């Protein structure tokens, strides 16, 4: 008996593999930029509409937002991998059940996160690195954004699964509408109505809520193949999703982990002004790393689909496309950001703070060297995730996002004090690159 909708899974297979690659990664990269812009826009308006201290507080709070996205991505990539593999095997009904259970689980987890964060707000803010000066702002930002956890987590998952459904451009349009709305609300709430940090957080939360409506319109409509349906509860499926999605979740969370590690080191070895400098670096780092993540995520449904069909040569060709793309993008990004460092810093820091501006631009130019290596590590982890070799992907993702960073930070600060902080990301990516090359060569 023919499964309803099986003819439409060919959305993942077009006339040219290279054209399909471009078709899927461009919207994915654009979507990642949009997600990175959410907290960056908050930071820009808060810096200009409140103070540089409030900007530091938004940066301290950012690992919480990153953590929600990372959780969503873990389930989304895990679910997307399984769905794409099932599409390749023409198991449409099973794919829909996987999708439906994923959304139910994420909704429950999101509500638990909101309750836990609001119940232990002060302790959570202190854990993130809030000081006596920044504590009021951090509490204000987190307490406003936590009730929107379900919207943050579901929206990111919906975005990835719409792409898996064969509509990557639609996903980009929806997330772009969200960031435009966020900019408008940020301007009104922070600059016009002077609602401060809570206004910026509320603008971001409302924006995520609105995009959920557009995502639901797709999944409840008649166009796509992925639909909500009745399903038996299968705990083993959750374990499989977590196993497949964990490496991508770690990659996403790495921006938050890096921010957390840097904030702790800066407080210990430098001062709170240096947190302002790192806040600017963190926003740019998020855009660059998320671009690399976009390449890996955009290609993931294609790799999983062809892997499910047993066409290994196409998987290898897609990997080569990915590596060439991130290599070119990395060199371009470093060149542009090196030349524009002073202007980028000027967006966030007032002109009269000349010493802080000069220091920020200097350390910014050091940090961006890590961009030259990050893309290879991200793509390597993404490739192994797409073919369900999650153990190897976890080694790479944990290496660049936590283990190598902590080792690099510990060694460099021991040798050079606070100056060593700004070189830690580059050393961390270099150490992880050695591991990635050794693991990826047999996998290709």
**What's the Cα radius of gyration?**
21 Å
Helix content range of the residues, please? Answer: over 70%
Average pLDDT metric: 89
The low-pLDDT segments are 1-10
Percent strand equals: under 5%
Instruction: Look at the helices and sheets and give the structural class.
Output: mainly alpha
How many strand segments?
0
Net shape: globular
Secondary-structure element series: HHHHHHHHHHHHHHHH
Count up the helices. Answer: 16
- End-to-end gap: 37 Å
Largest sheet composition: none
Structural features, described:
By secondary structure, this protein is an all-alpha fold. The protein is built from 16 helices and no strands. The protein has helices at 17-49, 52-88, 92-119, 121-128, 135-145, 149-164, 168-192, 196-219, 235-269, 272-309, 312-339, 341-348, 354-367, 371-386, 390-416, 424-443. The chain starts with 16 loop residues before the first helix and ends with a helix.
Layout of SSEs?
Elements: H1 17-49, H2 52-88, H3 92-119, H4 121-128, H5 135-145, H6 149-164, H7 168-192, H8 196-219, H9 235-269, H10 272-309, H11 312-339, H12 341-348, H13 354-367, H14 371-386, H15 390-416, H16 424-443
Search tags:
444 residues; mainly alpha; 83% helix; disordered N terminus
Summary of the model, kept short:
This protein is an all-alpha fold and 444 residues long.
């Amino acid at each position: 008996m023919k499964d309803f909708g099986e003819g439409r899974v060919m959305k993942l297979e077009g006339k040219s593999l290279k054209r399909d690659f471009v078709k899927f990664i461009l919207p994915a990269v654009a979507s990642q930029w949009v997600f990175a812009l959410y907290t960056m826009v908050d930071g820009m308006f808060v810096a200009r509409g409140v103070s540089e201290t409030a900007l530091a507080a938004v940066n301290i709070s950012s690992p919480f937002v990153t953590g929600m996205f990372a959780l969503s991505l873990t389930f989304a990539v895990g679910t997307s991998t399984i769905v794409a593999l099932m599409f390749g095997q023409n198991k449409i009904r099973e794919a829909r059940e996987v999708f439906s259970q994923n959304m139910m689980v994420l909704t429950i987890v999101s509500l638990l996160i909101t309750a836990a964060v609001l119940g232990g707000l002060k302790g959570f803010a202190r854990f993130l690195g809030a000081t006596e000066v920044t504590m009021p702002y951090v509490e204000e930002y987190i307490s406003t954004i936590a009730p929107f956890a379900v919207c943050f987590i579901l929206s990111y998952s919906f975005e990835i699964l719409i792409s898996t459904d064969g509509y990557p451009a639609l996903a980009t349009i929806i997330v772009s509408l969200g960031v435009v709305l966020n900019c408008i609300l940020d301007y009104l709430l922070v600059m016009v109505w002077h609602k401060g940090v809570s206004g910026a957080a509320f603008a971001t939360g409302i924006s995520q809520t609105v995009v959920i409506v557009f995502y639901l319109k797709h999944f409840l409509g008649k166009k796509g193949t992925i639909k909500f349906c009745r399903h038996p509860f299968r705990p083993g499926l959750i374990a499989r999703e977590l196993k497949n999605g964990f490496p991508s979740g770690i990659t996403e969370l790495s921006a938050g982990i890096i921010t957390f590690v840097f904030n702790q080191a800066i407080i210990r070895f430098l001062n709170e002004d240096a947190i302002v400098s790192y806040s600017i670096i963190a926003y740019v780092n998020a855009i660059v790393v998320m671009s690399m993540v976009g390449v890996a995520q955009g290609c993931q449904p294609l790799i999983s689909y062809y892997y499910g069909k047993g066409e290994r040569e196409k998987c290898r060709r897609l990997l080569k496309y990915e590596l060439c793309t991130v290599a070119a993008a990395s060199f371009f990004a470093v060149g542009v950001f090196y030349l524009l460092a002073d202007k980028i810093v000027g967006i966030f820091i007032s002109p009269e703070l000349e010493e802080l501006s000069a220091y920020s631009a200097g350390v910014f130019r050091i940090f961006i060297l890590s961009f030259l290596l990050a893309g290879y590590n991200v793509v390597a982890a993404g490739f192994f995730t797409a073919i369900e070799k999650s153990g190897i992907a976890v080694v790479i993702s944990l290496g660049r996002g936590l283990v190598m960073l902590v080792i690099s930070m510990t060694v460099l600060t021991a040798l050079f004090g606070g100056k060593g902080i700004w070189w830690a990301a580059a050393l961390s990516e270099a150490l992880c690159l050695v591991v990635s090359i050794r693991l990826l060569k047999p996998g290709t």
